[in-house]
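For homework, think about our next protein:
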Amino acid sequence: MPEISYIRSSACSFSKIALRMCLPAEQSKAVVLILHGATLPSIIFDLPGAPNQPTMMSYLAAQGYAVYSLDFRGYGQSSKPVEMDDPLMAGPPLIAHQDAAVDVSDVVQLIKEHYQDIPIILCGFSWGSSISGYIATHTDWVSKLILLGPVYSYPNPQWQELADPNDFSKLNPGIKSYRIASRERWCGLWERELKSHNAFSWRDPGTLEVLLDYMESTDAAWAERTSNKGCIRIPTGVLADALQTYNQTPIYDASKILCPTLVLRGENDTASLSADADGLISALTCPKQRIDIADATHYGILEKGAERFFKSIADFIKA
């Protein structure tokens, strides 16, 4: 069963980083480190898509891997930056990819202290794929890279609102240092994708309820104190990163990735578009593989067919 521990952030001595871990019964063959995306923290890798199904973390641990996932600062059970206590939300967007990469570095330092001479595989989901690509082009410890539901360099129309309407190269001035989101908005993309394909049967209702309740619990004290019941705070640095993607100025240069790389997405994913994956695959010069999973959305790892994603990842790691 996954456990949660906390480590000190090197970026802020008052901050802690929540770290999930799921370990194999026998000696680990490798370490898999998974990075979450823009809104939902690491709970998504620790939640089954249906009763009696494995989670992403437990599935990979059963294959013999030590599996870790963290909440970036400002997300989930990790510390919120003090700036997120400002009700005016003043200041620049908080926790962009460079900040998340520092959190990953702190976790990797701990992993290397516990595991020596075994490979570390990095898996990034959605925005986490951009962070993973950035890390893979700035460090030498990534032995294999998995870009899950990746966003790379494509003008996705649904991100147009991130831009200043008078200058698409600049962030919309209405975007503050953090945002306040309700239960209805946490999984808004998921709802739209399922609705557009009349595919609510792909998702177990129990999974959604557990996820919503968990998300609300991560910021419950603030919500009660500020009369924002049913809401949470989310950093907006990811929106600045997404604007780069929209303007086709990628967070990382895929041609500089040297390790074997898997590009994995659901066919019905409207955040990780097929055209964007085409461009990413074309830009990659390393050994590469692309898999598109049928009948799956951006959140396919939380749907009833999630094991197809997990098997694809495990097969890639073993290859």
